[in-house]
Design a protein that fits this description.
Elements (H helix, E strand, L loop, with lengths): L7 H10 L12 H10 L1 E4 L20 H10 L3 E6 L18 H15 L3 E6 L10 H18 L8 E4 L10 H16 L7 E3 L7 H4 L10 E7 L3 H4 L22 H19 L3 E6 L7 H18 L3 E3 L21 H7 L18 E3 L6 E5 L7 E7 L4 E7 L6 E3 L6 E8 L4 E8 L1
Parallel strand pairs: 1-2, 1-8, 2-3, 3-4, 4-5, 5-6, 6-7
Antiparallel strand pairs: 9-10, 10-13, 11-12, 11-14, 14-15
Helix pairs in contact: 5-6, 9-10, 10-11
C-alpha cells in the first residue's frame, strides 16, 4: 500500500491516460491459473519489512511463526511479503543488491514459515522507487538489475509455492507509457535467469483496478495480474495521520452518495478484462481502517466480500493486526474476530454468503471498447428501462428512458476518450457496467 489519496480530478486524469487495450486473446496460462487459484485467501505481512521508516527496522519480531499459525487457523492459504528491496540496492551501476542485510534473514524466515504451514508466499517489491517523468529512464535499468539478482538469489525456491511480484504500486500520476518499460525490463531480466517461477504484475496509477482494466497484457507466459482496492479512499483511510496529501476526518459513512456503485464498477471492469484476455487476476490489497464507524466498516467489507464471491477473485487482505485489522482486540483469534468480517471473508470456518450488488445476467454493452455507437443487449421481457451514462468522475453524460430494448443504442462519438459507467434500471433490477470509449 502507498499512502496516496485520489482527488476526483485525478480520476479524470487517469481516464485520459488510458490506452486502448489489445483485443486479441492472450495465450492460455494454465500454470499461472493453477497457482493463482491456490492463493484463495491470504494475508499481507504488512508494516514489517517494507516499513523502513521504523526506528527498529527491520523489526525481528514484527511477525513470528506463531503469527502464521494464527493466520492458518483463520483459514488463510497464502501470504504476501512486502519488502523495500530498493532500500538495499545501490544507486549506481551495476546496481548491486546487498543480500547480507539483516532483512534477508527475516525474508528467509517467512520462506520457511510458508513451507511449514503449506502456504503460498508472494515476495513483493514494495516501497521506495521515487520515479517521475524526469528520471524514469534511469530507474528502469536499476530495477531490472535488482530483479535479476533477486531471481538468482531465490532460484532454488519451489516455483509451486513461491511467487515474485515485480512492483507494488507505481506512482499514481504516471501513465502506462512511463510504467510499462519497468515491467517489461524486469520480466525480461527475471526470465533470463528463471523460467519456472510465476511472476505477478500490476498496472500503472498505483495499481488501481480501472488502470488494470485498461492495460495491454504482457507477452510473457506464466504471469498473474493483480490490483488493489481501497475505494473510496477518504472512507477507508479516515482518521490516519499519515494519509496523504492530508489526514481525512473521521465520521464518513459507507455507503454514501452511491460510492458502493463505484466498487461494483471497478470489480466488474477488472473481471471483464480478465475474462477477455484469459489471464488470472487476484486482489493483492484491500482493507478498511479501524477509525471508520463499526456499521460502515461492516457495510464496506460485506459489499467487497460479495464482489469477491461474485467474480471469484482470490484475495490477500491488508492488514492483520494494525491500522486495518479485523479483530476487536489482539491476539487474533476466533473469539476476537469482528463477526461481519468473518462472514464477509468466510474465515474461521464461516461459509455463509454475503449480500451485495452483482451485475445482472444477459445484459451486454457492445462493442466495448466503443468509438461512435454503443448497442445494449438485454434479456427477453426486460421491458421499459432507464439508462444513465456517467463519467469516471460521476458526471452524468446521458440519461434516457427506453421502451423498445430490441433497438436500443446510444451515441458516444461526442464523449472524451476514457472510462465510463452505464447504469440500467427497469424498476425490478439495476446493474452497472463499465464502458471504454476510444
Amino acid at each position: 500500500m502507498n499512502r496516496i489519496f485520489l482527488f476526483p480530478q485525478l480520476w479524470a486524469f487517469i481516464a485520459t491516460c488510458i490506452f486502448l487495450p489489445a483485443l486479441q486473446p492472450a495465450k492460455a496460462q494454465s500454470v499461472a491459473h493453477e497457482r493463482a487459484a491456490k492463493i484463495e485467501k491470504g494475508q499481507n505481512l504488512s508494516n514489517w519489512l517494507e516499513a523502513y521508516w521504523q526506528s527498529n527496522y527491520p523489526n525481528p519480531t514484527g511477525y513470528t511463526r506463531q503469527s502464521i499459525a494464527q493466520m492458518q487457523e483463520a483459514g488463510m492459504r497464502s501470504l504476501r511479503l512486502p519488502v523495500t528491496f530498493e532500500y538495499f540496492t545501490d544507486t549506481v551501476p551495476p546496481y548491486t543488491i546487498h543480500t547480507n542485510n539483516a532483512t534477508f534473514a527475516l525474508i528467509d524466515s517467512a520462506i520457511t514459515w510458508a513451507a511449514d504451514f503449506d502456504m503460498l508466499l508472494i515476495i513483493d517489491n514494495h516501497h521506495g522507487w521515487e520515479v517521475n517523468t524526469a528520471n524514469y529512464l534511469q530507474q528502469v535499468p536499476r530495477m531490472a538489475a535488482m530483479w535479476k539478482q533477486l531471481a538468482q538469489y531465490f532460484t532454488a525456491l519451489d516455483p509451486e509455492r513461491y511467487l515474485f511480484e515485480i512492483w507494488n504500486e507505481p506512482p499514481v500520476l504516471l501513465p502506462e507509457s512511463y510504467i510499462r518499460p519497468f515491467y517489461q525490463a524486469c520480466l525480461d531480466s527475471v526470465r533470463s535467469i528463471d523460467t519456472l517461477h510465476t511472476l505477478v504484475v500490476g498496472a500503472h496509477a498505483a495499481n488501481l483496478g480501472l488502470a488494470l482494466a485498461a492495460t495491454t497484457p504482457y507477452a510473457h507466459d506464466n504471469l498473474i495480474y493483480t490490483f488493489h482496492s481501497y475505494e473510496p479512499y477518504n472512507f477507508t483511510h479516515q482518521g490516519f495521520p499519515w494519509a496523504e496529501p492530508f489526514p481525512f476526518p473521521t465520521g464518513t459513512p459507507f455507503p454514501l452518495n452511491n460510492n458502493d456503485t463505484l466498487l461494483t464498477n471497478i470489480y466488474t471492469a477488472v473481471a471483464n478484462w480478465r475474462n477477455t484476455h484469459n489471464v488470472p487476476v487476484f486482489l493483492g490489497e484491500f482493507g478498511v481502517g479501524i477509525h471508520a464507524d463499526d456499521q460502515s466498516r461492516c457495510n464496506w467489507i460485506a459489499h467487497t466480500g460479495a464482489l469477491l464471491n461474485t467474480f471469484n477473485f482470490p484475495w490477500i487482505y491488508w492488514d492483520w493486526q494494525y491500522d486495518f485489522s479485523w479483530f476487536e482486540q489482539l491476539p487474533p483469534s476466533p473469539d476476537n474476530v469482528v463477526q461481519c468480517f468473518a462472514e464477509a471473508l468466510h474465515v474461521y470456518g464461516n461459509t455463509g454468503t454475503t449480500a451485495g450488488h452483482a451485475p445482472a445476467e444477459g445484459i451486454l454493452l457492445y462493442p466495448n471498447p466503443v468509438k461512435d455507437w454503443c448497442k445494449v443487449q438485454l434479456p427477453a421481457g426486460f421491458g421499459e428501462f432507464t439508462l444513465c451514462l456517467q463519467s469516471i468522475t460521476g458526471n452524468i453524460c446521458l440519461q434516457q428512458t427506453f421502451s423498445n430494448h430490441a433497438t436500443t443504442g446510444f451515441y458516444t462519438g461526442n464523449l472524451q476518450k476514457g472510462m465510463y459507467f452505464v447504469t440500467i434500471n427497469n424498476g425490478r433490477l439495476q446493474t452497472t457496467l463499465p464502458l471504454l470509449v476510444y
